[in-house]
Automatic annotation (TrEMBL):
Domain of life: Bacteria
Sequence ranges assigned to domain Glycosyl hydrolase family 13 catalytic in this UniProt record: 171-582
Lineage of producing organism: Bacteria, Bacillati, Bacillota, Clostridia, Eubacteriales
Protein name (Swiss-Prot/TrEMBL): Glycogen debranching protein GlgX
Biological source species: Butyricicoccus intestinisimiae
InterPro entries cross-referenced by the UniProt entry: GH13_cat_dom, Glyco_hydro_13_N, Glycogen_debranch_GlgX
Name of one Pfam family that matches: CBM_48
Amino acid sequence: MGAQAAFCAPNVRFFQHPMREIAGYHTCQGYCLQNGAYELPNGVNFTISSMGATSVSLLLFYRRAQKPYAVLPFPEEYRVGNVYSMIVFGLDIGEFEYAYSIDGPNDPARGMLFDPKNIILDPYARAVAGQSKWGTKAIPGSYRGRIVSSYFNWENVQSPHIPMQDLVIYEMHVRGFSKHESSGVANPGTFDGIIEKIAYLKDLGVNAVELMPIFEFDEMRDMRVHDGKLLLDYWGYNPVCFFAPNTAYSADHELTHEGDELRRLVRALHKNGMEIILDVVFNHTAEGNQDGPIFSLKGVDNSIYYLLAPDGTYYNFSGCGNTVNCNHPIVHQMIVACLRYWVIEYRIDGFRFDLASILGRNEDGTPMHNPPLLESLAVDPILSKVKLIAEAWDAGGLYQVGSFPSRSNRWAEWNGKYRDDVRCFLKGDGGMATQLTYRMLGSPDLYQPDERGECASVNFITCHDGFTLHDLFSYNAKHNEANGWKNTDGDNNNNSWNCGEEGETKNQDVNNLRRRLQKNAVTVLMCSRGTPMFLAGDEFGNSQFGNNNAYCQDNEISWLNWDDLEKNQDLYHFFRYMIHFRKKHPILRRHTRPAKSRFPETSLHAMTPWDANYQYDSRVIGVTFAGRNMEDTADDIVHIVMNSHWEGHQVCLPDLPNGQDWYIAVNTFNGPDSDCVEEVEDMQCVRSGILWIQPRSVVILVAQ
């Protein structure tokens, strides 16, 4: 199904007849129910709505021209309510770009910013002209829509529809993933560059790729130079248009076929059994506050699309200048339509909502008990199969981890408490034993299983925002001097530990400890109930040199250096092993059939079995998962022992039924040749039931 075919109204009369001539073009009333602009066999339909406008004109530009070659005012008879809709005949979609001029009251104190001199981008544009080449400054007024006519061949490839608890999510930045010359791809920094690395991802074992923002954004918005380096808004959390993919991420110029390269990526991932999740930003836009530009929503209906204070200034719950008024009915409708579009036209499998608590704020900024938008997304029939993941906090102080509104158990959450508690335990903080067991068991203190199910917690220790896994155990403090803010930006509460020396070192003992802690981290992550997620490059020791807020670093700080993969093969192989170990043992991921032995599904232990009376100084923990897979008659019993103490300890293992013994599958204290063992016959047997666990290490045992 093509992009436009999917979004034509079902009763479209394809061969409308001209009713009147405007600016030399034959026109007729358009189809008001379909927002945006789309191609018809005999013309192009343009529809835009504005509650406050008194008149609207369509502007047609030749490609890259600064002034329109045609201005077509919408006649009053082409207006239905607040909707302006017109079909223009005889247009070649490859020859023009379009925008709007919107007139109305100009009273900033009341939030009215209408000015017919402003060139206004269609909020529903499927492609945006003006900034297709990365790092090129858009000239004022150059944001204009393009018509997309893409009839893409999906080759009957379907989404794998992987259950949430079976996902292993790999978070990446499209450009940073392959931009470094060491990536070896033909099209670095693009969607095609990811396609070239799919074999790598498949071998690693991840089955979901989460892309940082790919909506059209302005990387040049806060362009500046610091210490001779050009700094950009590299991450992309400043959307220009919600419906358009960032054309700078395409290797080829896709005139009238914008988005096809992204579709090829989705098709290739699905063909290889992987899903794709988009990090979407509906909480703010690149228009900023009262000092920012007016190029889209501000010029359409500023007082509707943004949360405004009584004096007309902008509430800033996003920390980025403005806040989208998500629960206003018109904005609500736009967001639902947008997500439907990405699911229908790009076959996206899920969405991670940046600063999602903003999506639950009322029009006065207060949190709502049952936000209409969140409820609509949860029950929408087109979105019924996609994953909905909330970053359950915002920059206005609203923190909802464990309490994010979740109708029908449809919403999962980035579990920030998982990140914090696991980090604290791994570096040896006291009083963290009980918290760690909660996190490994799926955070039942946050997500009641009978209320939120097994799929509410997305577990992560690292993400784009903060230290990489390598840096987490290499730096006590952030080192963001390269950002130009005198190291004042970024979070100060990292729960990190440098293992005795700050930054890179030649001290082999320190480096060995750091490597062990990284392996401890992925072991805990892959042995926790919930959905694991980790940051691209963590699997081979990628570093950002202590920068925990690399949002502006379009350079070697943020780009993955693939030479590290060769240098840190043992870490990569350990990550790969743990991902496959998780897949091999469903009991780690979900409820299975009860074990035939006396073992409960989950149980907690300390240095003696069945003892979960943890004290402040408890740093040795045992967690056991037991059950039977649907196709198996034998029990599947996995026991994880974690020691965050700087001393070794003797641990008594739980007794197994007659005829079974404990075998060591993983011991992170061992060297790379024996820290993980594939075959049971090669594993060390612990028949005595006594285990010596070395300092700061994790051991996994399986019953055989």
